[in-house]
Amino acid sequence: MRLISKKICMARDIGVHNNLFGGILMEWIDEAAAAFATEYCCTPNMVTLKVGELFFRKPIKTGNHIRIYGEVLGLGNTSIDLKVEVRKYNLYSGEETVVCTTNMTFVRIDDDGVPTPIGNSVRQRHNERIATLMVV
């Protein structure tokens, strides 16, 4: 998986149970995954189509450093499927603990919001990456 974003949990992000508010984490995930999808597909015209089940495994507290990782699961004609993993990072040990996971789908759209094909150069580069991974 590739590191796609970093955040620090601030006091303003905390909910009533003294943990990071789930809606804030969902916002961070969507923003990071959207940036990853647009970069991977070489277009700013990507929108979130679907967010899978969000599994909140561990709490996040004020001051925790958060790292968000992404991985391409598949590339369709107009869409890209991602796996996203959120990890709490320990500054002292360098250890990372998975705190949340989900899968997401983004779709490339035109100016009218109609799905439009992802470019052939992106598809070719994606296929080359897959081929490289299979050789290793």
Please explain how this structure is put together.
This protein has 136 residues and is of the alpha+beta class. It has one domain: Thiol Ester Dehydrase, Chain A (Roll). Helix content is 26%, strand content 37%. It is built from two helices and six strands; from the N terminus they run E-H-E-E-E-E-E-H. The chain has helices at residues 22-41, 120-135; strands at 2-8, 46-51, 55-56, 65-75, 79-89, 96-108. Strands 1, 2, 3, 4, 5 and 6 form a six-stranded antiparallel β-sheet that branches. Strand 5 (79-89) and strand 6 (96-108) form a beta hairpin. The longest helix is centred in the N-terminal third of the chain and has 20 residues, at 22-41.
Number of strands: 6
Radius of gyration: 16 Å
Please provide the ordered H/E string of secondary-structure elements: EHEEEEEH
Biggest sheet architecture = 6 strands, antiparallel
Catalogue the unreliable spans: none
Beta-strand percent range: 35-45%
Mean pLDDT across all amino acids: 95
- CATH architecture verdict: Roll
CATH fold name? Thiol Ester Dehydrase, Chain A
Secondary-structure blueprint of this entry?
Elements: E1 2-8, H1 22-41, E2 46-51, E3 55-56, E4 65-75, E5 79-89, E6 96-108, H2 120-135
Antiparallel strand pairs: 1-4, 2-6, 3-6, 4-5, 5-6
In short:
The chain is an alpha+beta fold. The chain has two helices and six strands; from the N terminus they run βαβββββα. It is 26% helix and 37% strand.
